[in-house]
Amino acid sequence: MPTATVALPDLRLYIDGEWIGAGQRRTRSVVNPATGEVIGALPLADAADLDRALEAAGRTFQVWRRSSAAERGAVLRRAAQLLRDRVEQIAAVATCEEGKTLAEARVEVQAAAGLFEFYAAEAARLYGRVLVRPTGSRSIVIHEPVGPVAAFAPWNFPIGNPARKLGAPIAAGCSVILKPAEEAPASAVAVVQALYDAGLPPGVAQLVFGVPDEVSRQLLASPVVRKLSFTGSTVVGKHLAKLACETLKRTTLELGGHAPVLVFDDADIDRAVQVLTTAKIRNAGQVCVSPTRFYIQAGVHDRFLEAFAARMSAVRVGDGSALGVEMGPMANPRRPTALDALIRDALDHGARLVCGGKRMGERGYFFAPTVLKDVPASARIMNEEPFGPVAIFSRFKTFEEAVVQANRLPYALAAFAFTENGRRANLVADAIECGMIGINTTAIAGADSPFQGVKHSGHGAEDGPEGVAACLVSKAVHQA
Ligand code: NAD
Q1: What is each CA distance from 114 to 107, 110, 117, 438, 470, in whole angstroms?
Q2: Domain ranges of the chain
Q3: Which single residue of 40, 379, 389, 462 could bond 30 by disulfide (Cβ 3.0 to 4.6 Å)?
Q4: Number of H helices, E strands in the chain
Q5: Residue 480: what pLDDT?
């Protein structure tokens, strides 16, 4: 497994218009998950840094809220172009600190650029509404930016998550303090750098790293912050929502998932196997919308399982920066440990291992693509998000039975169904509780459509017009 060592750019905080290095601050090591080697030292913000960021966020909000749609659009459009110009550098950094393949990292940079471009256009469409009544009275409804946003982004999409967290508030006229994951910080630095190189006024977007619990408690206790935006696990999301509740902040929460996949007897099996295995190994399964619980109709179960497992067993696993590698390591040592425990528990509950099920290699955090079958609903893995390259197979007979299984969990983020029957496609899209469903596809995220969960997978949308709307509040102005 050859390793392309990439020098991480300077890891810094960006507070009140200034890039800030470690100085006397605490630092935290950044590790390449393919090798386990330390590749950088990240400065961690202290309480004084966060106070300074809060004060600046309140001040720059008053400036940016008055910016024109043209100005917001121009910054986001230029930043998109800079991301595209820098795609190779940024992708190499993301692969080095998060582990995903270079091909995936390049797609992520392009998607982040596409999102900025969409938001640039959306900034020009923040219209209000006029109500004209028969009596002659008139009212107008205007949309105003919600205020300074505190945003927390996880490590699994180190470019895309920060872009999501920054693009919508900037388009809406908000200031934003972003705390990306400390485990993959250099990609976020690159996104923020692109915005400033594109002409964003100093301090509108600030970047802090720190001890997550310290940062979130301090930012969310502040009355300056008017909105919490969090992507991560359901447990942490609920905790942050409680903190935000004290000052009644608006919230957008994109939390865990446990996506069901329903494959019906009439599906195009070859295509379903190809599409679903590709989605399953994406970012080593560390994707909140990763297909996880595979419910396969009895007539095609064995054929589908055999083809799926054959493809999973053949996946080329290795350092994401190496040519030809299809799946990189897991992002941190917690993931293989957690996955190991979930698989052991499933086997103890009577599940059968079809392939994989173990760590790989002498160094780094690699885990073999895994398929489990006959997994009882009582096994932990059927109820907790595995967040790894594991597919869990069950068999079903009727449509109704499959829908009950799909809706069984409190998670309700993404779902997938494969059928060539158009009526069944409509019925299943209506019947599944989720924020997004892919019928004969796993491509369910796009700059122009809402990315969101329901139930314990969260609320509020990112992307699409809905993503910008989530950073606005409306005001009604009545005139006699
Ligand atoms: P975790 O629950 O400890 O952390 C999840 C994210 O929340 C991380 O980015 C972390 O930095 C952040 N976080 C944790 N505590 C925080 C706090 N007190 N204040 C602010 N931010 C905080 O788990 P983890 O080991 O990093 O990831 C494992 C689980 O997280 C996965 O099983 C998955 O369920 C979930 N996750 C979900 C997504 C997603 O896209 N929805 C992304 C990454 C992780």
Answers
A1: 10, 6, 5, 21, 19
A2: 13-255+457-479, 259-447
A3: 40
A4: 14, 24
A5: 82
Secondary structure (H, E, C), 306-362: HHHHHHHHCCCECCCCCCCCCECCCCCCHHHHHHHHHHHHHHHCCCEEEECCCEECC
236 pocket-lining for ligand 1 (C-beta < 6 Å): yes
- CATH 3.40.309.10 at 259-447, yes or no: yes
One-character DSSP codes across 405-419? HHT-SSEESEEEEE-
Specify the ligand 1 atom closest to the Cα of 338. 32
Q: Residue 22: its pLDDT value, please?
A: 96
Q: Which residue has the tokens 């009577």?
A: 350
Ligand 1 binding pocket mutation candidate from 217, 233, 288, 384 (most atoms within 8 A of CB): 233
How far does the centroid of ligand 1 lie from the alpha carbon of residue 298, in Å?
Answer: 36
The phi and psi torsions of 275 (rounded to 5 degrees) equal -65, -40
Ligand 1 near 385 CB (within 6 A):
yes
Q: Counting every residue, how long is the chain?
A: 480
Ligand 1 pocket test, pick from 42, 155, 228, 236 with the greatest ligand atom count within 8 Å of Cβ, gives: 236
CATH architecture classification, 13-255+457-479? 3-Layer(aba) Sandwich (3.40)
Whether 292 lines ligand 1, by a CB cut-off of 6 Å, is no
CA dihedral for 278, 282, 285, 290, sign (positive or negative): negative
Nearest to 214 by CA among 29, 45, 21: 45
Residue 370 burial (10 A CB sphere; 0-12, 13-18, 19+):
buried
Series of mean pLDDT values for 10-residue runs along the chain (480 residues): 65 98 97 97 98 98 98 98 98 98 98 98 96 93 98 98 98 98 98 98 98 98 98 98 97 98 98 98 98 98 98 98 97 97 98 98 96 97 98 98 98 98 98 98 97 98 97 95
